[in-house]
Design goal:
The chain has no helices and 30 strands. The chain has 324 residues and is an all-beta fold. It is globular, with a radius of gyration of 19 Å. The mean pLDDT is 94. It comes from Aquamicrobium soli. InterPro entries: Quinoprotein_ADH-like_sf, WD40/YVTN_repeat-like_dom_sf, WD40_rpt. Keywords: Repeat, WD repeat. This is WD40 repeat domain-containing protein.
């Protein structure tokens, strides 16, 4: 049976991550807590709105209502990377070669490792931002679609149109697909090679959590009483295929998903604080955490594939050891 090491914090947990194998918890008040031979805390933003950890697991990038972007490292250091003046930082993302992207209002920015910043303006507010897995490219979610920018060059942006408000964005690990979450309880996707559309609808609630499986063959999502897992195994993604529905519970909604680093398994967090793991091949489930005080807001696996760090809406956080 997995064991849970709890960490009770005050307030809403925005994001969690393992930095150098140390669990970190970014809170809505701008504090970042860690469990490194005891409970430690460092202050990043004065009021935190958004946090994102880089793929290398070396830093947590945060942005907040104070208009600043910070990088928090495993040793507890918070370094200011950029400022947007009095504007709120609404999104942040970590990219290749030490680059960081962030947004404020209608503008998206990319800060390179040398400190140089490039700005991209849009007609409406930027609602989501993500780096492509290959090359220096960012995707921006906006009203009526998404825009692709190439920060290292002055290349013309690529506009991907679809009516409605797009609120989040993610690239598939192979870079072949772009998927956005929408205000209207749906996902929308594009096959980047030819712009072909993929509409993934039928959710009873907004999709706030997305996670790609290890090889990008599956995309797990929240927003229903089960984890909705779309197949991206063919050249046209999920078109014409039904998604998997894993961990169905009639009295709870899935609020967070986190796919296993190497296997076709996902951790599933619910609005009552329960966490399970479910296998794609046969839908087999394992209980990882019994219900808690509030909804699971974020989860992440460690590199050793033994532990899952989780955060919640009311601060009852912790680390699950599945090898126990």
């Amino acid at each position: 049976m997995p064991t849970v090491a709890p960490l009770d914090l005050d307030g809403h947990c925005v994001a969690v991550a393992f930095l150098n194998d140390i669990p970190h918890f970014a809170m809505a008040d701008g504090a970042v807590h860690s469990l490194d031979h005891g409970h430690k805390t460092c202050q990043a933003n004065d009021g935190l709105l958004y946090a994102f950890h880089d793929a290398a697991g070396e830093r947590l990038v945060t942005g907040g209502e104070d208009g600043k972007v910070f990088a928090v490292t495993a040793d507890g250091q918070a370094t200011e990377l950029a400022s947007a003046g009095r504007k709120w930082i609404s999104n942040v993302a970590a990219g290749p070669q030490g680059a960081v992207a962030y947004s404020a209002g209608k503008n998206a920015y990319v800060r390179f490792a040398d400190g140089k910043v490039k700005e991209f303006s849009h007609p409406r507010s930027v609602e989501g931002i993500a780096f492509a897995p290959k090359g220096m490219r960012i995707g921006v979610a906006r009203y009526n679609g998404a825009t692709l920018h190439f920060p290292a060059t002055d290349g013309k942006p690529v506009e991907l149109e679809w009516a409605g408000a797009h609120t989040g964005i993610t690239f598939s690990p192979d870079g072949n697909f772009l998927v956005t979450s929408m205000q209207e309880n749906a996902l929308h996707g594009w096959k980047l090679a030819d712009g072909k559309h993929m509409r993934m609808s039928g959710y009873p609630a907004k999709v706030k959590s997305l996670s790609w499986s290890a090889k990008g063959r599956w995309l797990a999502s929240s927003g229903a009483p089960a984890a909705i897992v779309w197949p991206f195994t063919g050249k046209d993604g999920p078109m014409g295929k039904a998604p998997l529905e894993l961990g169905t519970r009639g009295n709870a909604m899935v609020t967070s998903v986190a796919c296993h680093p190497s296997e076709d398994v996902t951790a599933i967090g619910y609005d009552d604080g329960m966490v399970i793991a479910a296998r794609f091949a046969d839908a087999k489930e394992v209980l990882l955490r019994r219900p808690g005080k509030s909804a699971i807001t974020s989860m992440a696996w460690d590199k050793g594939e033994r532990r899952i760090v989780f955060g919640s809406a009311s601060g009852d956080c912790g680390v699950i050891d599945i090898s126990a």
